Amino acid sequence: MSELMAARAQMGSSLAFHIIFAVLGIGMPLVLLIAEGLWLRTGRDVYYRLARTWSRAFAVTFAIGAVSGTMLSFEIGLLWPRFMEFAGGIIGMPFSLEGFAFFIEGIFLSIYLYGWGRLSARAHFLCGFPLLLGGFASTFFIIAANSWMNTPQGFVLNAAGEVVDVDPIAAMFNPALFTQYTHMLFAALVTTGFSVAAVYAWGMLKGRRDEYHRKGLAIGLAVAGILMPVQLVTGDLIAVQVTQNQPLKLATMEGLFQTTAGAPMTLFGIPDEETRTVKGGIEIPYLLSLLAYNDPTATVQGMEEWPEEDWPNPVLVHLAYDTMITLGSALLLPGLVGLYAWRRRPHWLGSRPFLWGLVASAPAAFICVETGWITTESGRQPWVVYEVLRTEDSFTTATGILPWFVVFSGVYILLAVLGSLILIRMARRRRARIAAGLEVAGD
Amino acid sequence: MTDQTLVLLAALSLLVGLSAYAVLAGADFGGGVWDLFARGPRRADQRAAIERAIGPVWEVNHVWIIFVIVVLFTAFPKAFAALCIGLFAPLTFVLLGIVLRGSAFAFRAHSEDQPQLQRWLGVAFSISSLVTPFALGLCAGAVASGALEPVGDGWATVPVAELLRPFPLVTGLLAVLICSYLAAVFLTRETDGDLRDDFRRRALVAGCALAVVAAVGLVLEADVAPEHADALLTGRGLPFALAAAAFGAGGLAALAARAYRWVRPLGVAFVLAILWGWAVAQWPYAVTPHLTFADAASSPSMLRVYLVCLAIGGVILVPALWLLFRLFKGGHPEAGRRAEDRA
Lengths: 443, 343
Known about the structure:
The complex is a heterodimer.
Chain A: H1 3-42, H2 45-79, H3 81-114, H4 121-150, E1 156-157, E2 163-164, H5 168-172, H6 177-205, H7 211-245, H8 247-254, E3 260-261, E4 265-267, E5 270-272, E6 277-279, E7 282-284, H9 287-293, E8 299-300, H10 314-330, H11 332-344, H12 352-378, E9 383-385, E10 389-390, H13 401-435
Antiparallel strand pairs in A: 1-2, 3-8, 4-7, 5-6, 9-10
Helix pairs in contact in A: 1-2, 1-4, 1-6, 1-13, 2-3, 2-7, 2-13, 3-4, 4-6, 6-7, 6-12, 7-8, 7-11, 10-12
Chain B: H1 3-36, H2 43-54, H3 58-75, H4 77-86, H5 88-109, H6 115-144, E1 150-151, E2 154-155, H7 160-163, H8 166-188, H9 193-224, H10 226-233, H11 238-256, H12 260-282, E3 285-287, E4 291-292, H13 293-296, H14 300-328, H15 339-342
Antiparallel strand pairs in B: 1-2, 3-4
């Protein structure tokens, strides 16, 4: 493995790891606020217990998110110093604002976690809002930096290749910001909802069909089920945005080599760069033109319009994208079935197929997040700043990346195993305490 | 506002971030060091007090390093690139230390029914609490002694042998001792009785060791970083050096006399005097002696926007931080205890 590939692999695995905890960091405050709000309204212990359990679990996942996020802030400098040297003076502003947003998240997380019983119930509940908004704001600023990498603006490169006339505001509010932000934000909320629902669906499959499990499942499913249709809309918006700003990325996502009028959408199949065809795959006529331009006969540019050295990896990007849209569409089902069952067939809600479906929805949602992120980031390659700075040119001159890649991969595996173990044991302890009648407000 | 003023203000914001990180996160790392050296009949109580003190605040204190990094690459991107290339190896150790410290601490706090695992997590937590400030101190020493060298249009990676010379090693040790001293000093305000006396003695030991190592560091500095040492001993850094000596001696005297009310402000003043003296001696260089802050800075338009963001962010941050510390560092020994721990 070359040093450059080792660096890309390390950056990629760090992001893939962090995004799991970032997603929970954005979404958990929402489900916490719902559970605690319901407790304040109804005074029922079950909501209090759920909020307390989630707050303890969140303490663990937030800590992993905080340290893995720190890794990223170091790694963009350690691995890609020339990228930061180039970009720091242009997109530093959202990064510095993100620092403040993260402070707010950290401060109110501590107050929230350690403030049970120390603050009044109402004050404690109110402290959940800055936590939620801090997460929304962090996401906004991080996505602003990332979307700038996709649609860079707010600066001029002079003849000597130097950055001049920097406009930090224009850089931050770049064309990809709105669609990338909304798509990521709803992805986080939906994924958290499915994760919560899956935990309690699993418990019910194990025979723990008590009110605690039913309410936990209901809150998670309500969040995911209500927001999932919204997520499909933001997905459509981002596809249109990519069509306008990064047509090569769109062509790569769709495995479209030739410029085509009335382009079909090809689901799966293996794009072959040699023959410039997609082997296998299911073609749905006119769908791509319809999605990209709202016109079934519109012409969609194929990858052939660009030189091959500017192509992203079509196999990776196409398969990642198709995985995301397929699983993402399937994730409409739990919400729709749940809604129908709730109104007409209540007994379905406790049935094994439905519960198994919910259990599967959590990994499916995380796979969507990961493959969506691969689509965005790998689809931008070979550029780190789209059509401005190539990834290989931003790479460090320091050597010895490969051993560190091995070390940090080991650390991630260790964190994942230990974190899961600790969360499972925590759930078991909580159940024992709840069964013993503990975990009520004021104890 | 002139361009020089913009650079100065941005550099000052960096120093404020570093100061907050040194005092707040430094004490958290020091807590980990004392966890490693927990001794005597109250060993378990010492560890519990440390965990209680760190628990509610370490994540927020940790954000200051992110703040510092963000300021570096927003306001001084060339310096950030130089440090990342030149100090690749020690910074990677810092990173490893940060990741292991944070996660081991959080995991340990939530694995109360697995004593074996908890012990291992404690070891990981305390060793990484020692490695992280050591590697950071090493980096500071390497920069001050001019170990970073430009090559072509980039920078050379400092060879490991260059890093493991006496001066960077001493600055690494100095950083560990600063953290340990601060932690022990803070813990005398969050414990009582015999436990408080344990930390009082630890603070005295760390404080005396700190004085000795700082003196050795100054002697070495005169050799490898003469301009730095001159600035500190005769030039604009002198007031800070004198203040550090006075606050250091005062802090030790207060500890010896059990004048606990004074130990915390004197301890913080001591550490800030060292850090600011260091910064003043280093000025105007971001990377001694090749890159000044002015040369490393972003465009004035960027700096202006950055400083506005800083002001807005500060207005939001300060009251939130005040609330956090008022809640959990209110001065009584059990300030950091969770409700369920008390039950």
